[in-house]
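Fold Annotation — chain and its backbone

Encoding — discrete vocabulary of local shapes
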Amino acid sequence: MSRDGRLWPDREVTCGAESLHGTAPASLMAVGDDGSSTPSTCRTVRRVGRHLASGRTSTHRPLSESDQPATLPTMELEHLVYLCRSFQGEGLAFWIDGGWGVDALLGEQTRPHSDLDLAVKFDDLSAFQRVLQIQAYSRIYRAGDAGWNWVFQDPAGRSVDLHGFVLDGQGTGVLGDPGDGTMYPAGALDGVGVLDGIEVRCVAAPFVLKFRNGFVPRPVDHHDIAALCARFGLARPSRFQSENG
């Protein structure tokens, strides 16, 4: 995502992934005239926090497979790491968004995931496509997807959702037409996390909280936000003041 967890409410599963149709992902924000940020009607991106605490035990309950919709395929950690190494081997820069971005910040997988959301440079989209095609991924086309949002799926139903941005002079990752206001704000991509021993860049924790607060949270959102706040000592956003929202 996000594209929020690229986990959004009221979405229709059309490609077996968390990247679904409906409200835009919590990670990408549209900035209004009053300076407020709200989820864009386009997909948005997620960012991970850069302070990975070491030696701290988790205080949250990991979600199990039974907590997830049974119809979604699973993006296994081993497969994700293989993809990341493949991208890194080609010298491609990427930032993990969505649910996997949260787990990267936490330094461990805490729940199942059905897709991988990545923020990438717009000019690198075709290079990512070539690497994914080698891994048997094919690009899928969905009505309403923006030109900067490329989605790929493999025969097992796992999907990789790419958000191609262009950095402006202020460090903002602009998605598409700047006039649309869909972006990764400056600092959002400063997160650093770890997955299976690999250091990865991701959406920073404070921005994850801000993005997820832009829509009615689902159980996975409560799980992710509770875990991040407990790990990094952050205050819960307004929509997450109680476990029941």
